Amino acid sequence: MRAYHLEAFGDIDGIVLREGGGREGGDAPEPVGPTGIVIRLHTASLNRRDLMILHERYPLPAVPGVVPLSDGAGEVVAVGEAVTRFAVGDRVSCAYFPRWRSGRITPDTVDQPGCTLDGMLAEYAVLDEQWAVRVPDHLTWEEAATLPCAGVTAWNALTGGEPLLPGQTVLTLGTGPVSLFAVQFAKLLGCRVVSTTSSEEKAERLRALGADAVVDYTRDPEWGVQVRELTGGLGADLVVETGGPETIGQSVRASALYAQIALLITGSARESGIEIPHAVYASSLATIRRVFVGSRAQFEDMNLAVTAHGLRPVIGRVHPFEEAHAAYRGYAKDAPFGKVVIRMGS
Description:
Elements: E1 2-6, E2 15-19, E3 36-45, H1 48-54, E4 71-79, E5 91-94, E6 124-128, E7 132-134, H2 141-144, H3 147-159, E8 169-173, H4 177-188, E9 192-197, H5 200-209, E10 213-216, H6 223-230, E11 236-241, H7 248-254, E12 255-264, H8 278-281, E13 287-291, H9 296-309, E14 315-320, H10 324-333, E15 339-343
Parallel strand pairs: 8-9, 8-11, 9-10, 11-12, 12-13, 14-15
Antiparallel strand pairs: 1-2, 3-4, 3-6, 3-15, 4-5, 5-7
């Protein structure tokens, strides 16, 4: 077995490929305990949080030597004697918060693969059966690897607050993976989607994905006003706020009177805080709800919707396992339209 390990922070070269099944080496792993399972990973995918962890800007400190990446997908190849949720051959992924099953997150459930637990940038992963989630059968391995972080985050943003009704308007910002998933999920929920972007090429791709209207924020810094005009002066009923300090003011401007703003964790405590000018804040009665990925139950609910509608995640680039450093560098330099995926084998 081969696995990458985060040996040193601050530089991609600190991610080192090792032969062997764990930090101490060895052969392919066995299940740990009676409810353990072993997954032969086929793919993994990158998220912005993985760069933050590498550069020590993530809110949760990573364990030195940890296997990176929270997102991956593969097949079960071994199970412990008491496993009941899975069988050999099942297609699975790992929940972003493996110990958060449902309801509200609690302080004892914040462990994450690729940070405080070994992650998915390896040929095998050893999990407890309660940490794993079946992935939709119609998805390729590359598509399945995109779901745990960006997919669940977008699903939680749209479904984790007040009910979002068909015909309501959802505003998404930019073309990051969460925003792309949000466009797709909003459409399958029967909503109208307004998206922002920075180029006509990306605008066309957003329209092809399902966006009903696209606003170029580079042409109009006050794009919140344009969003209102596109909604007949009413504003968006839900904003998936992925920009943070740079966009929150315009997001509030673009919001309907009693809108929901799903505010994602977008940076570290070292970065500038979110400030909303009084005139902007006073113009709205919107509710701001923080979103930090989601629970295993939300992952499973999302997969039901993905299966029912035949939804296919957007893939930007695929790299071989041996070129994980190139995947990191390309993602850091110029994140593509869609997810960056690493394939373990042919």
